[in-house]
Amino acid sequence: MHNSLFTPMKNLLPIFLAFLFLNLIACEPKKPAPEKDNLEGKAWWKEGVLYQIYPQSFKDTDGDGYGDFKGVIEKLDYLESLGITMVWMNPFFESPMVDNGYDVSDYRGINPRYGTMEDFQAMLDGMHARGIKFVLDVVVNHSSDQHDWFLQSRSSRDNPYRDYYHWWPAEKGTPPYRHSLFDPEGAWEYDSLTNAFYLHTFAEQQPDLNWENPKVRQEVYDIMKFWAEKGVDGFRMDAFQFASKDTTWPEFPEGHEKDFIKWYGMRPQLHEYLKEMYAEVIEPYGVFAVAEGAGSTFQDAHDLVDADRKELQMAYHFETVDLSRTPEGYDLADFKNVFSKWDSAFAEKGWISIFLSNHDNARMVNRFANPDPKFITPSTQLINTFLMSMRGTPFTYYGDEIGMTNIDMPTIEEYVDVEALGKYQAAKSSGQDMEEFMQILNYNSRENGRTPMQWDATLQAGFTTGTPWMRVNPNYTEINVSAQDQDPTSILNHFRKMTKVRKENPALVYGKYELVQKEHPDIYAFTRKGEGQNLMVILNFSKNSSSIKLDQLPTESNLIINNYSDVNVNDQDMSLNLKPYQALIFSFD
Ligand code: GLC
């Protein structure tokens, strides 16, 4: 009996094995398994440090006054020396440059100002050879009005590209008022060619793409695939919260500029689009994606980056950069609150980026550190220590590793930025106090963050041999890479130490964050615990000395980083006395 059962099984074994083998072949992925993608747990994009390059301002090699790819290639060793592991570069595509490249007229073409596709490839290969990943800026909430899609779309009402954009036929009357971020006259623009209005959330030359149209979405995925095939490792989705908008076109209620996203963006369809994008591009190509904006609620943020939902891997919010918009600065208590709140939102799931500046903001040093020459070094080191110690991927904006500051531009004539000019017009027509307006613009404008990189003390800061597209900050003779490169106490070398500290201490990446003495008026202290480590981060945000009592104190052997040469502890009363802007990290049991 036993035998009779066993025999047929034995005869079936080769068939079963063949079946198993065929199945294994069938299941084998067509493409090599994407080793770069890891939504759960540990991931390279969580462990990395990102450096943002504004290509126009980084390094010019042909003397035309604009930075270029060859300039970045020339500085690859510098990038490697920083210890950064990812580069996000602002748009370099074909563009009429109304919004410095955020108005794209050909998503596959390179603006000759920056070089050629071969130069791009050489730059990308050079980064990869140094272990640096590349993040591409994808500007697809809108295109340029010079993009072929828009030229077609506006040419006639029955053009196949008509529905690539949002149109309002004039026979329906004037569309309900919508606020525009850049255009004081609102977001609908009349186009006489077809007697209709088109929508532009940003400048008039940046018409919004219609994401409800599946063809538009497919075009975008094809563009992303094109770049993924060239080898880019990630995407930054520009202004993406607006991709899905309320197309019942409600009237914009006055005074709601701050709730802009709530009124116009983050519609539920956004999640559907992202899921589609994830399945089409992100997963099969093993790339990662970070969105500009995290919605207007924690739930939004969660849903965007919750790994189980397969939408995005990372998002960033504006609550911290919004803290310091006027020369009065910010309150440390608010600063702690915002960072702690967002950390708790992602305590279990999801991931954010940690940043205090970028191309849309004035310089971090002026807004969050202290540009006074007496304090600029320790205070910038403190801020950089902070950025590298939080949970979330640190994003460093070019120049912040050497403490570049705002430039003084007190009169409107010097401004070229579409946002600044739009705000100026709006302020003027609403009768604002223009002196006060200019003071705030001078402090807060994004032109501050776009001045050429300060490489050395030679003419034009070593950025160009020609006339730079934007004035070099006159403080380049003091603040520059060359002056700091060999000085072990410089902002630059502190930055390099911090990228190393972050790499060597996984608790800084994955560890749990907990505030210590939340109410302390000068000191931001917190612990990071995990990966077998307990770390304490102590930052004196004041220009005066300050002290804090702790259960554990730093010693020679547990000190991980210190931006001064000594530490002043009092074992008697367990207090730690910190110098102005002193920043420490130490481990404890
Ligand atoms: C994003 C970009 C900004 C640009 C805007 C319109 O906010 O960061 O620089 O002006 O989108 O594309």
TrEMBL record:
Glycosyl hydrolase family 13 catalytic domain sequence ranges: 52-450
Single GO biological process annotation from the record: oligosaccharide catabolic process
Coiled-coil regions listed in the entry: none
InterPro entries per UniProt: GH, GH13_cat_dom, Glyco_hydro_b, O16G_dom_2, SusG-like_C
Keyword terms, alphabetized: Glycosidase, Hydrolase
Pfam families hit by this protein: Alpha-amylase, SusG_C
SMART domains associated with the record: Aamy (SM00642)
Family of this protein: Belongs to the glycosyl hydrolase 13 family.
Protein name in the entry: Oligo-1,6-glucosidase
